[in-house]
Structures are given as structure tokens and as C-alpha cells.
Design brief:
398 residues; alpha+beta; Neuraminidase
Length: 398
Amino acid sequence: MKKISIILVFSIIVTFLTSCSLVAQPEAPVSTEQITDTTESVEPVFEKSFVPAKEALMSEICGMYGLDTILFKKIQEGAFLYAASIADLPETTSPEQVVLAKRLLCYDPELFFVKDLELSEDGLSVNIYYNAEQIQAEKARQELVNKINGAVSALTKSEFTQFEKALWIYSFLSKNISAEASDKLSLYDLFVKNKANSFGFASAMQLLLNEVGIDSFVTNSAEGDCWVTANINGEYYHFNPFLESRKNHGQNLEFFGATDNEMKKDYTFWLVQDGLFETACEKDTFYYMRNITGYGVDFAQQAIFYVDKSENNKIMKCSYFLDTKEPVFDKRAQDMVYYGGVIYFADIENRNKLCVLELSTGKVEELDSIFVTRMYARDGKLIYFDDVSNTEGSLIIG
């Protein structure tokens, strides 16, 4: 397979995230509430210097976009010091170069608080505008780094396989982050405010995968969406948590480990520097996950719980390493959510009423009598809907 480096803007942040700590919870969906605070390990924001590896990556990215590396580095360093403007610009500086620099700058985790760049009328300096005062920016940046640290260290300290690492990260993003179309969202918005565009989703997944030792890169389509292509056990597959979140709030696994042919159902083609990109991943390794809904993962049991639409909507348990599956009990569900050893489900035999199953005891209890057509979990809440009568309900689950 020919691997091509593409849109690796977000990769610039990999080098500064070398110490991360979070204790993973074995159940999915992974909640942002499970992230451990790591405040004591955070470096002061305005005392960090550029490392050679970061500079090399910046040079590669600038070359890919045709941006003057010297100009970009000057803007980075000026913003890093919270300067109002920078001077002594290279001769190649132009309004187009400044606009491009702004586009690339917004995904630097240390500089997400930069609001705008503007070339002066005489073309001799670039003015820098900020979203927050310096002390507020430093506090926000620390909060951001804590979140990223927390989201990575569970996997670096565990014995997870590459498959489990990819599944953990994919679940974390698709189940917890809201998909939005805005092009003004930064890394801070994703990890702290739980919202992102397609490039944010893809970049975050690439960062987390690379941090836990899985080779990956961002791919973008002619339609404008982005996703991650990653090497899982020697084969490259596509992962699109943005589309998963947007379509089903992370309830399904339609775009986890997708082949080229599967991705072409949603995208005409995707772009690289010299034409079409083919991963050559024709194996349907993860195809068994496609016809399910309401999945949740228990990593301690090495099992996925889900509603199997190909098995008359039975609630199933799949032991993913043993490649076996079995019904959890004799109930059928319209949809379900697995959370902390408990299954919340819409009981088809009981007019889709919301029920809960305690797996440890086998006890089933009715929670709400509305006709539940779909549900998902986010921010420690179970949110469920009756699309027939346009009714919505919620309850706290964690």
C-alpha cells in the first residue's frame, strides 16, 4: 500500500503530549466524566520552547500547503508570547499567506486562543488578535492539556490490543463529541466543550492513535469531510467518528474499520496530493459490526453488547477475540444503551417501553412507558425518544 502524508496539520501537537495519565473505565461508552485531572503535570503555557521534531513537522506541512515556513514560525512564536504584532516578515508574505497561516494555526493546541491574523496595510507586519486575555488563555490551555492527557494514558498503561485501542478511541469520540459543521472549532472545543467538525474528529483520533503506537493519518474527501486511515494489525482501514456521531450519536459502528468500498457508499472519492487514494483494504474484518445498533463495550470482559438487527433485534453479547456471539436473554429491543454493566433497552414485546437489565442479577425493570424508538447516552445521561409522538425523555445514569 502506498501511504501518502495528507492534511497532517493536527500532527504538530503529538510531540508535546509525551506524559499522559488516565485510569480507563472498562465499560463503554467512555464518558468525559471518567477523565482524571492531571493538573500537576502541566507545563506553564508561555515557557515551552519549540522542539526540533515539531519544527520538522511544521516545515513539512508548510511545504504541502505552499506556506512560507519562516512566516509561519514567526507567527507561531509571536502568538506563543501573546505579542500584538510581528515584523521583519519574509519577502513572500502576502494576504493569502496570512490567511493560510491562520487556517493552520488554529489546530496548534497551545495557540487555539488566537482569533485572527491581519497583514498591515504597508505589508510590513502581521497583527495578532486573541479570543481571551493571556491569563485566561493559559488557564484554558491547561484545562485542554489535562483533557488530552486523560484521554490517552488509559491506553498507554494497559495491555489493550491495537483493535481495542482503536475501538476505545472511536467510542470515546463518537459517543461523547457532538458533530457540527462550523469551521471555527478548535481542539479546545473538542476536548473541553465536546463539539467538533469533521477535521477536528479526524485530527483528534489521529493524535490519540499515534500516541498509543498506531500508525494513522488524516484523509479528506472531495465532499469536504475528513476521517482517519489507520494501520490495524498490518492492514489499513478507515475510521470516521464524525459521521458516526452525526448520523447516530455513536450508537452504531458503521464507519469503524471500513474498507474502501464501504467508504465509497458515502463519499465519491477522497483526495491526496497526486490523485485518488486506495488503502487496498478489501478484507471485511469488521463487517460483522455493521448491522448492529446501541453497542457498548466491556473491555474487562472483552465483549461488545448490542442489538443485532440481522437476528430479529435480539440483544447479543459478542466476545470479539473468540469471534463468538450469543443472546443475552430472550428479549428483543428497538434500541439499547450499555453503560456500566447495565443495559437500557426499548422492549419490543412490551410496546417499546424503556426497561433496564442488570446483567449481574438478570433483573429487568420498567423505567418509562413511552414508546421508545431510539436512545443514546451523553454527558452521564440516557436520552430517549418517541419519534411517533415527538416525545423526549432523559435520566441520569452516571
